[in-house]
Amino acid sequence: MSEWSHGEENNFYRQLPKVELHAHLNGSVSSETIDKLIARKPHLNIQHSMTAIRSGQRRTLDECFQVFKVIHQLVDTEEDILMVAKDVIKEFADDGVKYLELRSTPRAEPKTGLTKKRYVETIIGAIQQCKQEGVDIEVRFLVAIDRRNGSEVAMEMVKLAEDFMLSSDGVVVGLDLSGDPTVGHGRDLLPALQKAKSCGLKLALHLSEVSSQAEESELLLDLPPDRIGHGTFLHPEVGGTCSLVEKVRKNNIPLELCLTSNVKGQTVPSYDKHHFLYWYNLGHPCVICTDDKGVFCTDLSQEYQLVASTFDLSREAMWDLSQKAIGCSFAPQSVKKRLEQTWAELRPQVLQTRVP
Ligand SMILES: CNc1ncnc2c1ncn2[C@@H]1O[C@H](COP(=O)(O)O)[C@@H](O)[C@H]1O
Ligand SMILES: [Zn+2]
């Protein structure tokens, strides 16, 4: 047990400088922003209970994907996307996140004239505006491929990401593969992912989020990806294989781990059974992330605190986790170096203060 009071613990994790590498834009919308969206679109008759999974509640993964559909109805114009992206970036900054990699699936909305290209441009615009306003956070963007949409759209997203990688002043750094893991097969997306890799885009892939994906993970790990989202069922204790674990370890591929998301989405039975422990005990790079802070009603400070209390880790160990996450980011060396400096400057004050 910790010798610190609850208030002190909260305060410490908020002060801790953090890196967020796995955040889906529309899953990260806070209840305050949802209020503003509902006010813009009262005719949709959407209530808060439809856009978030509260403390103690559980949903099947399938039900989680229904929640995203509701949020997508609320976020369907350029103005909405700009507001949502700026709010999300500022909320992460307020939570002590110094570097954020946001990801989102470009959507065309014929009714409002939104195109996939404008979708990405609007998010890049939000990132630039936050920078101009002096928000204390460095932000990069990953174009997401929704696996449900098949190989053709995947290839279209790779082209879009490549164009933006070359024209966005370094804001677009890679691709995400996400969406309902029970739909589609990674084999069909392999050519698009290979192309992305060959043109210099970084790959963050959701792998083995459910137990039926071993064969797909086997295939996609040969790319290899630069980071893995979840990887819940990779290891043999939960039905994965030694071969999968070996591939991950051989290439030292960091795992993005999202405790609240996995427990609320019921792919992990309880916090203490989370696969964080398996990989952490191997000394493998693990990055704590939120996944969908709005939908799962969490933030990155809470996720760090949850990991520390569940696995009885010291503040120093948690500091090391947050610092090592810098190295797992897709930021260029110059940015990583600056972040390392920030961590070095903050360390004495954050690790020693006892603020009530
Ligand atoms: C809970 N675990 C998860 N597993 C897989 N994909 C997920 C996810 N959580 C979110 N997404 C992906 O992110 C989209 C919402 O944000 P954007 O509209 O892209 O910003 C979802 O529609 C899904 O494709
Ligand atoms: Zn995710």
From TrEMBL:
The keyword Electron transport does not apply. Residues 17-340 form the Adenosine deaminase domain. It catalyses: N(6)-methyl-AMP + H2O + H(+) = IMP + methylamine. It holds the Pfam family A_deaminase. It comes from the Eukaryota. The keyword Hydrolase applies. InterPro entries: A_deaminase_dom (IPR001365), Ado/ade_deaminase (IPR006330), Metal_Hydrolase (IPR032466). GO terms for molecular function: adenosine deaminase activity; metal ion binding. SUPFAM superfamilies: Metallo-dependent hydrolases. GO terms for biological process: adenosine catabolic process; inosine biosynthetic process; nucleotide metabolic process. Keywords: Hydrolase, Metal-binding, Nucleotide metabolism, Zinc. PANTHER family: ADENOSINE DEAMINASE, ADENOSINE DEAMINASE-LIKE PROTEIN. Belongs to the metallo-dependent hydrolases superfamily. Adenosine and AMP deaminases family. Monomer. This is Adenosine deaminase-like protein isoform X1.
